[in-house]
Write a structure and sequence with these properties.
Elements: H1 2-20, H2 25-28, E1 53-54, E2 65-68, E3 78-83, E4 103-109, E5 117-118, E6 122-131, E7 143-150, H3 153-162, E8 178-185, E9 188-198, E10 204-215, E11 223-232, E12 239-244, E13 247-253, E14 267-268, E15 271-279, H4 281-288, E16 295-305
Parallel strand pairs: 5-14
Antiparallel strand pairs: 1-4, 2-3, 3-16, 4-15, 6-11, 6-16, 7-8, 7-15, 8-9, 9-10, 11-12, 12-13
């Protein structure tokens, strides 16, 4: 019995030291390259979010992802993303009219929150903080996506085959399984959703929505603290409530998940992906006659949980703005 207790205590001490220890020096080296499709070393508490994985299509450059010690929201470190002209990685380099028309520097949070689903489903809380320097702006008519909650590609592609109305042949643009995503625009940051659902007669159709949630005057050189309460659902009981700093900026009620299709015995859920994702750079160059500017974004204070109290770091759960 005493031996078992000693082993338990030792295990708790090891876990505590792991969470408290500094990140290895090699990861702080500005020349270090975080490899795509590999675990990202992050020792800060992320609640039940689990592992961080460098997106497989992230470009292999030392500036793509860095661990920063200067611009920090919580703890000792933040995660810095950077996209320069022509940056692209596996898969993206083949897209568009030239190499680098599409590219990204991203991290995935893939660990599912419930059994039977690939990624998150049901009621859950999310928190993350973002810092956008004043030198980072929109690049329209190209695009910059900074966050997204998305299904596994196998699932939405299978949906396209079963329901062609959900694919890109549809005039409304179809659905890539992105439940919620955020863009940098001329007027600020917007929130979007795209979904393919069924009408009252059971016919599939696609819908899209976008809304500016942070005006450009309030976007730069400060920490933006996001808190999202969502019930991912294929039915009318779905909802989303989003707060940024001291404001409630978005809410939505009803179905927020595409028509479900099983893949490998699991139903589709939403995984969080964050960083910088650029596309249609050729349109920017054609319009302005110059290369696209460098973009940098910082992230910190990432957490997922089943309640507000165990998730929120910068919001008062008892006094969240209703409107």
């Amino acid at each position: 019995m005493k031996k078992a207790i000693a082993i338990l205590v030792l295990g708790l001490l090891i876990c505590s030291n792991l969470n408290a220890k500094d990140i290895k020096k090699k990861y702080l080296d500005p020349d270090y390259v975080f490899k795509p499709d590999k675990l990202f070393p992050w020792y800060e508490d992320v609640g039940n979010w689990g592992r961080l994985i460098v997106k497989a299509m992230t470009h292999k450059s030392s500036h793509a992802i860095r661990i920063d010690e200067e611009i920090v929201r919580d703890g000792k470190y933040s995660i810095r993303f950077e996209m320069q002209d022509r940056d692209c990685g596996k898969g993206d380099c083949k897209r568009g009219s030239f190499e680098g028309a599409y590219g990204r520097s991203e991290i995935d949070m893939y660990d599912s929150i419930r059994e039977g689903y690939k990624f998150d489903h049901g009621e859950v809380w999310y928190a993350w903080s973002m810092y956008i320097p004043k030198t980072t702006n929109h690049i329209r008519p190209a695009y910059t996506m900074v966050d997204q909650f998305k299904e596994l590609s196998k699932m939405y592609k299978k949906r396209w085959k079963k329901y062609p109305e959900c694919g890109h042949s549809d005039p409304s643009g179809g659905s890539d399984g992105i439940r919620l995503f955020f863009h940098l625009e001329e007027d600020g940051m917007d929130v979007n959703y795209e979904k393919c659902i069924k009408d009252k007669k059971g016919n599939p159709f696609s819908r899209h929505m976008e809304k500016i949630i942070i005006p450009s005057s309030e976007l730069h050189d400060l920490w933006l603290d996001f808190l999202l309460h969502v019930n991912w659902s294929y039915e009318d009981d779905g909802f989303m409530h989003l707060w940024v700093n001291d404001k409630k900026v978005y809410q939505q009620k009803g179905t927020n998940s595409d028509i479900p299709v099983k893949v490998e015995g699991k139903l589709p859920g939403a995984a969080f992906r964050f960083g910088i994702y650029n596309g249609k750079i050729d349109k920017y160059e054609k319009k302005f006659g110059k290369k696209r500017p460098t973009q940098v974004v910082y992230y910190d204070a990432l957490k997922r949980g089943f309640t507000c109290e165990e998730t929120a770091l910068w919001h008062d759960c008892n006094n969240l703005p209703i409107k």
